[in-house]
Amino acid sequence: MADQDPSKVETIWFDNTTGPDKPLYLPPLLTFKELMAKYASVDPTLVPSLVSDSPPIYTPTGNSIQTEQKGRLTLRRDESEVRTFCNCGDCEDDESDEPRIASTVWGLNTKLKLQQEAADFYLLYDLNLDGLDNGLFQAKIDLLSTQFQAYTDLAIGGEIRHLLGRRQNGVEIPEALMNLLQQPSYHSGRSVAWQAWYAHREVNRTAALYDIIKGFRAFEKSGYGGETWANIADTLRKVEEGEITPLMFIDICWGLEHNSGSYFSKVWMSGYLQKVLNANLYWNLPTLYKYATPDIMELHKEASCSKETS
Q1: In which band, very low, low, confident or very high, does the pLDDT at 36 lie, cut at 50, 70 and 90?
Q2: Mean pLDDT, residues 242-247
Q3: Which of left, alpha, beta for 242 (phi over 0: left; psi -120 to 50: alpha)?
Q4: Could you tell me if 154 and 106 are in contact, meaning their C-beta atoms sit under 8 angstroms apart?
């Protein structure tokens, strides 16, 4: 599409059975009619079909298409389905592979209620200081450390896929990481990148973290990668190599969420998490009790009463 400037629009990749097809460059906002016309001008054999009550507006974001109304867009080539985008709530293929990959590949509990986990964590932390947590705090550390390490690993693996198009001139990328990034499938969607990064880590272990730290520092100044992500990856390396404790790692992750409001957003819902983190900062017990599990709340209340009467 000669009239499109690739540096100013999103790139949407569509998969077929053999691997990623060529990217389609789309302007940031299209009606369905305009969307059909754009696809036809790129490739007449790629025919979109829509099931919806009314034509929605599609906004390309990253490697997916979001619709402001309920609808289903299927792109077809020679009568074979290429990819379906949906937000109807009834289908399993809306950005859909992401929860499945996060769960089955990375072992994440995608239903984790972070606001509850944070409230329990800080109440148990307080109880542990007086030896009144009944061993529950260590169990919470084990759970959250395992989940947060896997999540952080997944997140950096998805973020690094943006490097090749945003690399500083003349900055070298470690060979093993470059080989990974040059795999065409690594750029066909976030969930695919998550799988590829997992396989890469299984082979290269902690060395892959040293490489990805360098990779993040090779980004040009943009909204991707950079020193922030390099530090995140380095924090994962530190806990993996025993330079920081699992407890310290968890606290750093809570801090990342507190400062950005979106650190955990790639897998988990975190709408009320900020309230809990602020409650811990100012030790607002009513708010912590509100979001904690009933058993932990009662345990903390009983311990608090015992301390007051002793």
Answers
A1: low
A2: 98
A3: left
A4: yes
**Average pLDDT of 273-292?**
96
Per residue in 72-97, pLDDT (tens digit) is 444 433 333 333 443 333 333 334 58
Rounded CA separation 310/308 (Å): 6
Beta bridge partners of 85: 73
Q: Counting every residue, how long is the chain?
A: 310
CA distance 279 to 99: 29
CA distances from 72 to 47, 49, 58, 260 (A): 13, 8, 11, 32
Query: Quick check: pTM over 0.90?
Result: no
Question: In terms of C-beta density within 10 A (0-12 exposed, 13-18 middle, 19 or more buried), how is residue 54 classed?
Answer: exposed
Q: Which of 181-185, 210-214, 301-305 has the highest mean pLDDT?
A: 210-214
Domain ranges of the chain: 6-86, 101-302
CA Rg, the chain, in Å? 23
Please check the confidence at residue 232 and state whether its pLDDT lies above 60: yes
Residue bearing tokens 């900020």? 274
Q: How many CB atoms lie within 10 A of CB 51?
A: 11
Could you write out the DSSP letters of every residue in 166-199?
GBPTT----HHHHHHHTSGGGGS-HHHHHHHHHH
Q: Is 70:89 a contact under the CB 8 Å cutoff?
A: yes
Q: Output the six-digit token pair for 51.
A: 């099931």
**Structural contact between residues 190 and 142, judged by C-beta atoms closer than 8 angstroms:** no
284 closest CA partner among 112, 122, 144, 134: 122
Model pLDDT, residue 27:
37
Distances (CA, A) of 204 to 98, 177, 180, 208: 23, 10, 11, 5
